[in-house]
Amino acid sequence: MNYKKIAAAIGILLILILGGFVIWASFPLGPSSDAVKALQSSSTVTVSTDPFLTFKPAGKQATTGLIFYPGGHVDARSYAPLAAMIAAQGYLVVIAPMTLNLAVFSPNRADKVMATYPDIDTWTMAGHSLGGSMTCKYVYDHPGTIKALYLLASYPANSNNLTGYTLDVISLYGSHDQVLSVNMNDTLQLLPATAQLMVIAGGNHAYFGNYGPQPGDGTATISRLEQQNFTVNTITASLQQFQ
Description:
Blueprint: H1 3-25, H2 33-37, E1 45-48, E2 53-57, E3 64-69, H3 80-87, E4 92-95, H4 109-116, E5 122-128, H5 130-141, E6 148-152, E7 168-174, E8 196-200, H6 224-239
Parallel strand pairs: 3-4, 3-5, 5-6, 6-7, 7-8
Antiparallel strand pairs: 1-2, 2-4
C-alpha cells in the first residue's frame, strides 16, 4: 500500500472541501434592493460603511450604542433597514460584518466596534440566528460590558449559560419560524431570570432581515415590515432606559 499517495489524495480532498466551503461562505444571502437603499443617509440617519455599517441619528450625539451580529451566511447589509429604524430613534447602531459571513469566526468583533466609538457610554448587543448565539458568547466572555441583549430567533449555547449574569435580555422569534430546531421556552433556562421571551405572531425566521427567503423557513402571515416594526419598537422601548 502506497501511503504517500493515500496521504496526498486525502490532502487534495481536504483542500477541495475547504475551497468549496470558502466559495459557499463568500456568496451569502442578500441583501435585497430595499436593504441596499437603506445604506444611504437620510434626513434622520447618517450612514457610513467603513470599517463597519454604522447608523447614527442625524443631528444628535448618541450615548447608547447597539452592536448587531448578522445571521449565518447572511450579508451584513441585509440588516440595514432594521438598523436604520433603530438609529432614527436616537441610538448608534453598528452592524459588524463577519469573516466569511459567519459570526462564529469573529465572536469578538464587538471589541473593535467599541474601540472605534469611545464616546458611547452604554453598549448593548443584538444578533440574528447564529449572530445572536455569538453575541451570547461575547456577553459570557465579557461579563458586565454589555447592558442589554436582544436575541432575534436565537439563543445561547449550553457552554454560554447566562443565568448568573446581570443584564436585560429580550428574546424574540416568529411563530412561523421553522428554522429554529428547539422549543424556545426551553432556552430561557440559559438566560437571566428576568429575560423576556416574546413571540411575533405570524412572523418567521427571515423577516428579521432583508435578504429574501431562508431555506427551510416557514411562510409568514404578516409582512416583513410588520415584523421589523415590532422588533424595533421592542428594542427601542428597552433602550430608552439608558438615555
